Amino acid sequence: MIKELVVKNRSYRRFDMNVSISGEILRDLVDLARLSATGGNKQALKFLLSNTPEMNRKIFPQLSWAAYLKDWPGPAEDERPAAYIVILGDTGISNTFGCDHGIAAQSILLGSVEKGFGGCMIASINRPALKKELGIADHLEILLVIALGKPAEIVILESVAPGGDIKYWRDEQGRHHVPKRSLQDIIIS
Amino acid sequence: MIKELVVKNRSYRRFDMNVSISGEILRDLVDLARLSATGGNKQALKFLLSNTPEMNRKIFPQLSWAAYLKDWPGPAEDERPAAYIVILGDTGISNTFGCDHGIAAQSILLGSVEKGFGGCMIASINRPALKKELGIADHLEILLVIALGKPAEIVILESVAPGGDIKYWRDEQGRHHVPKRSLQDIIIS
């Protein structure tokens, strides 16, 4: 069951622009992060929500998409995310955030898949520009942006041999292929 | 449903010593991590599994437990974890691991809760000692240890006011109380 969600939870980068995500759904997703573990229970993460065309337009240009797809500059106008959750670290609470944003982001994305949405964690961000565009306070550090929407692409998991190439790629039909290492290759005995 | 798992997935530090965890279950849990996102799809994490008394005894003394419980040195002999998953970063693949271990750990813990187990992510580790005890190769960096078992404690979520104390505590019945910030307190509008 959780396995099903994890398998379904691919990194989606193209979305159905006709499907929006309400503020209530975004808050429900953040609630999953709120109830997840944080280092020393500090709960130093903050969450900025965006689901309006105006705000989304400020976020999109500050993100880098799919580094391995050299010929693809990111989703076209009509396949962009319906919403974003920007995960921030509150330096007024802690100076280090460990892997808290990873824990939070995984809860959020598993929750979004369950609701029929999906998305992508993006760490390649023009942070100074995004801070300025969104008027984010100085004491909040941008850790991760989660792009969300109704996925409009097919993602196919593949096996990769030890030492093989893990770069994802698109075939002629536009399907996105993701090579994954085997269990045997990642377990140390 | 995912909400139910997230709520049930508390940080458990005391376990029923009579319940073991098989190698097969540990591999199933790592499979959830394997199928979860990693930065640039690099899949630079490796997983070391332990569920034998001998190996568990090498891991336990290298971990720090529940920093806020000053009078509690960690689980007693008869309430220790049945198993551990040590998450390692393979520096032969990448020099940075971002928040990949957080993503992986959350998948593993949600999976373990679904199977009737539970556990705790531990980042406060005597890394040099653990590396030596387990004979971990030089190119593998210890990122996180997940302690696992059948939980044998009650964990109670509580609300904390903005700026309030987030330190967890134990009451006279030994129940573990965890103050959580409100949704309103963590969402930036």
Give short descriptive properties of this protein.
three-stranded mixed sheet, alpha+beta, homodimer, 189 residues
Enumerate the strands of the largest sheet of chain A in spatial order, edge to edge or round the barrel.
1-2-4-3
Strand content range of chain A: 15-25%
Protein structure class of chain A: alpha+beta
The largest inter-chain interface, given as chain pair and residues per side, is:
A-B, 63 and 63 residues
Number of strands of chain A: 8
Average pLDDT figure of chain A: 97
Based on Cα principal axes, name the global outline of chain A.
globular
Gyration radius of chain A (Cα, Å) is 17 Å
**Low confidence ranges of chain A:** none
Helical residue percent of chain A? 25-40%
Distance between the amino and carboxyl termini of chain A: 27 Å
Nutshell version of this structure?
The structure is a homodimer of 189-residue chains. With 189 residues, chain A is of the alpha+beta class. Helices cover 28% and strands 24% of the residues of chain A.
